[in-house]
Amino acid sequence: xxxxxxxxxxxxxxxxxxxxxxxxxxxxxxxxxxxxxxxxxxxxxxxxxxxxxxxxxxxxxxxxxxxxxxxxxxxxxxxxxxxxxxxxxxxxxxxxxxxxxxxxxxxxxxxxxxxxxxxxxxxxxxxxxxxxxxxxxxxxxxxxxxxxxxxxxxxxxxxxxxxxxxxxxxxxxxxxxxxxxxxxxxxxxxxxxxxxxxxxxxxxxxxxxxxxxxxx
Amino acid sequence: xxxxxxxxxxxxxxxxxxxxxxxxxxxxxxxxxxxxxxxxxxxxxxxxxxxxxxxxxxxxxxxxxxxxxxxxxxxxxxxxxxxxxxxxxxxxxxxxxxxxxxxxxxxxxxxxxxxxxxxxxxxxxxxxxxxxxxxxxxxxxxxxxxxxxxxxxxxxxxxxxxxxxxxxxxxxxxxxxxxxxxxxxxxxxxxxxxxxxxxxxxxxxxxxxxxxxxxx
Amino acid sequence: xxxxxxxxxxxxxxxxxxxxxxxxxxxxxxxxxxxxxxxxxxxxxxxxxxxxxxxxxxxxxxxxxxxxxxxxxxxxxxxxxxxxxxxxxxxxxxxxxxxxxxxxxxxxxxxxxxxxxxxxxxxxxxxxxxxxxxxxxxxxxxxxxxxxxxxxxxxxxxxxxxxxxxxxxxxxxxxxxxxxxxxxxxxxxxxxxxxxxxxxxxxxxxxxxxxxxxx
Amino acid sequence: xxxxxxxxxxxxxxxxxxxxxxxxxxxxxxxxxxxxxxxxxxxxxxxxxxxxxxxxxxxxxxxxxxxxxxxxxxxxxxxxxxxxxxxxxxxxxxxxxxxxxxxxxxxxxxxxxxxxxxxxxxxxxxxxxxxxxxxxxxxxxxxxxxxxxxxxxxxxxxxxxxxxxxxxxxxxxxxxxxxxxxxxxxxxxxxxxxxxxxxxxxxxxxxxxxxxxxx
Lengths: 216, 216, 215, 215
Description:
The complex is a heterotetramer, with 2 copies of chain A and 2 copies of chain C. By secondary structure, chain A is an alpha/beta fold. Chain A has helices at residues 3-12, 27-30, 84-92, 128-134, 194-199, and strands spanning 20-23, 42-45, 49-53, 74-81, 98-101, 105-107, 112-113, 137-141, 145-146, 149-150, 152-153, 168-170, 174-179, 182-188, 205-206. Chain A contains 5 helices and 15 strands. Helices cover 20% and strands 30% of the residues of chain C. In chain C, the strands form 2 sheets. In chain C, strands 1, 2, 3, 4, 5, 9, 10, 11 and 12 form a 9-stranded mixed beta sheet that branches. In chain C, strands 6-8-7 form a 3-stranded antiparallel beta sheet. Chains in contact: A-C, A-D, B-C, B-D, C-D.
């Protein structure tokens, strides 16, 4: 199983029946593929839809029904559409139970940086800042390291997305939770040892007595 | 013609095709009766409707279609309904072209007091403060005097509804406009002399060279 | 969303609760919920509602039963009982301009701390409030309002909890359905999923905690 | 509301105008109006739009023709032409978080001076902005945005100018239709009065100044 699949499957386990869930682009999008068919969650697309369904079959796409990237999607029975003020009212107002976002860095305080690399092109923050500030739970789904460098850092060197700490980071190597400015190792990925996690984690990690392997 | 009818007929002449108009309770409500049938204006009811129509015929009222006082109304073809945030977004945002409101006092600056008599019961301001602050034009429709006391005063002694001056006051005796802190007599009611207006007007009135009689 | 009886729903509300109630002069008010609040005699309530309606109608029933100790509203002019209770100091009333009332509730539901409004500047409403200048214009800072419970009345509710409203019964219901910890809904008609087209849903299902089942 | 041709409507827009354009990644964008803006070569435009779409699509066409000198948006990540123009200092870009962007436009349309949002506190977005504390929580004061023109795309427009939108093409169109001095609308279908039920109208007719007639 590749790293992305590990992450997506593990994040899917964090969703509960009835949750309103917003998935960011990249790895987070894959999470929808691993939600059990009998677990009813609502997926929001921040361009104005609750109840997003899978990519429509060939020839069934509608140009006025897309995800936030402009790609055709479908809508499930019971879907609803709304304007952007409402969509971000839902996000900022704490009505989104879980958002899953990609990350560039997460630090020991749970601070996320995921929108800007200084000196490089500035694409803009889109909805990320509102999602991290407003969703009830924020889960970061990302690779543990990039080019051998830890993305779980002591302190973010990239511009923060929000000062509000994320709840959980799920990587291809570990599940890490944050509280009181400390990062705790909750689980390791299948076949990954605690020592291997520590070797590629810049942030100091609290290691509980038992660190089970992810069940995915 | 009684005073109320004079006022309502004269105010109706201030409305233009396509105007979005909000009428307060009391004399302002009567204005709708004197809008020519071929003049298409939109009436807003601030409880959430544009396109209010006349009182429905016997047996045709719907309990979920009322004016702001809870009385049954009808809706014209092309009507629209919306929530209260939108309704007052329309009002505060300057989308209402004309509001017609009753008044307790209007002073020489055009300041209106119409929501509270200190020492008496406080019913509340309802939507009046937003209407006077936000509508493009504010017209006050009221009797010129109450119990022999001028309602056009030098300075409001009752609590103000807004510091934003009204555009026009139409009474059973006169039409008065406001600019630069001065009240000007624009018209007199049929059969009323300038001297009679001045006799029951506490505020200083600028009298132009010609003061025509209201055409109603 | 859970479907529950009106008795179960109201049993969740403690005495002294802070409750938003939809409706405008008794139109679009969850009458069944209010009847049950009276029957279960929930006292010392802090109510957020546009008005006090009239005796015997809508929110007026709570004043008939003297269950309200605090009211945030835009006017109470047509309910003499509420007025008497206020004058007898049994009821504290906070009066708010109607557009400000709507925006404060909307802010509460949308995670905003407040809004800047020109309404009320230079009037009694400005007393004790922060005034903030933007580009030379003075605004009042009006802060968000939230409640523990919102009692909401819809026209249609589907099995998932999607809501739509009819005519002037929409009023404050959609914004209150966003501004409370627990949202309890009555609907004139409960309908299958899909009866309300996606573009016609006003309150999306995830906002609704409890839907009152048919009697 | 006046029904006009797309040529007449765009002729009203001067060079250097400040224009809001509805749409989200090119979905729900008034393409016919943008094509005509390009044809009439309106230069030095100040655009308020969620994104820069992609080259050849929606608002992207304005960057293809290098007509934009200033852009207020939430991201431009998928339009390399807009990015190049920004890096070459031909285009000034103000980046705004998407929820803040929506609220600032809504505030502009609803007569509010601004809103207090928690989004952006403690980040680069807070630079140069007033921070206001309410009950111990810090918020950014984000001020209203308005424009001279709003170019709006609806699904249905009736003869009076009532508008409804379809699916995810609604996005910023309804709030922009309130936040500009002059509102110009294209619709996928122009329909008789009454086709859109009152409860399904999203933008009431009096908000629309000009409706573009069929081809």
